[in-house]
Amino acid sequence: MSTPENLLQKRDTHRENLFLSCAGLILPWLTPQELASISLTCKSLKHIAKSITVARSSDAARSFESLPIPFVNTVDSLPYAYFIYTPTQLLPYYRQCSRQFWGPVNPSFNHISRLHFISSSSNSLGEAFGCNCDSKCDGESNEEECPCLALRSSDVITECGPTCRCESECVNRLTQKGVSVKMKIVRDMKKGWGLHADQKIPNGQFVCEYAGELLTTKEARRRQLEYDELASSGRFSSSLLVIREHLPSGKACFRINIDATRIGNAARFINHSCDGGNLSTVLVRSCGAFLPRICFFASEDIQVGEELTFSYGNIRLRSDGLPCYCGSCCCFGTLPSENT
Ligand SMILES: C[S@@+](CC[C@H](N)C(=O)[O-])C[C@H]1O[C@@H](n2cnc3c(N)ncnc32)[C@H](O)[C@@H]1O
């Protein structure tokens, strides 16, 4: 028989469960600072905040990729780096995006979001630019049959794109399926976080795209000034990459500015090496898309545990440049710096 005490207890348990399930939905949207503040308020919230921290440090890619990318830190107490994840480059209207769910997730939730990101960022030129191949532009399609294969050149890879008729499983969409190698983000005392291979990666293998916000040159210059100031006054690292496409004469004819500082993917953790590192940057243009994407490929055979690095450039304009700790035999002592 239900006594008034029993009824009151039932009501309290129901309220507590409701509170905890709401907290489980809301807390993953919080920044680390907000999470730390809220976890001071009661034991239950502290417990939820802890499980969110564990989930965050177990996958920087928060299920947007088919493989998790964990954080590993044996040098200090920082469990993870906070940023908004995008699996591919974003057009500027995404700049308003200031929060993202990051906690224990149902993987199908982010799978849907991944498709949304990709279709929203296709920067399509229109239907006239795609191929009409039935399903896959595989080895059997010759270049006359598939115009996308015919567009390949030594410095820009052309893949099938948003307006092609072939399916997403087409082999000529190598870099569009996201990260396909096991990687981890490892903390270093001097360089901060760095991206490491967690499997052998053969020379030539696609590693990942450099994803982030696509900026105009004016905005890239404005942000670089802001980042330089922040970097000089404390522990701040920016991830603004500028790639210039050159004419055979050597003159720059096109530039692409991608800022992964606030919104990006695992590539934002790739550190510089003065010897050129073990990754090369390649421009990949999807047929029918206006802008190319920047992709990293292994430039040598990479061993398990090896840090993934590339060269940030050769120009050092600032005499007070940041110290370089790449450890290569040809280290210049300072990180590259040039006018954005
Ligand atoms: C693209 S971020 C790389 C990820 C960064 N380490 C982090 O913790 O977020 C670039 C920044 O990393 C640091 N960095 C990269 N390569 C380095 C190197 N060889 N030596 C020292 N610091 C490096 C610098 O602070 C640089 O501004």
TrEMBL record:
Pfam families: SET. Signal peptide: none annotated. GO terms for biological process: methylation. InterPro entries: H3K9_Histone-Lys_N-MTase, Post-SET_dom, SET_dom, SET_dom_sf. Residues 320-336 form the Post-SET domain. Keywords: Chromosome, Metal-binding, Methyltransferase, S-adenosyl-L-methionine, Transferase, Zinc. Residues 181-313 form the SET domain. GO terms for cellular component: chromosome. One of its GO terms (molecular function) is metal ion binding. It is found in: Chromosome. Its main location: nucleus. This is Histone-lysine N-methyltransferase SUVR3. The lineage of its organism: Eukaryota, Viridiplantae, Streptophyta, Embryophyta, Tracheophyta.
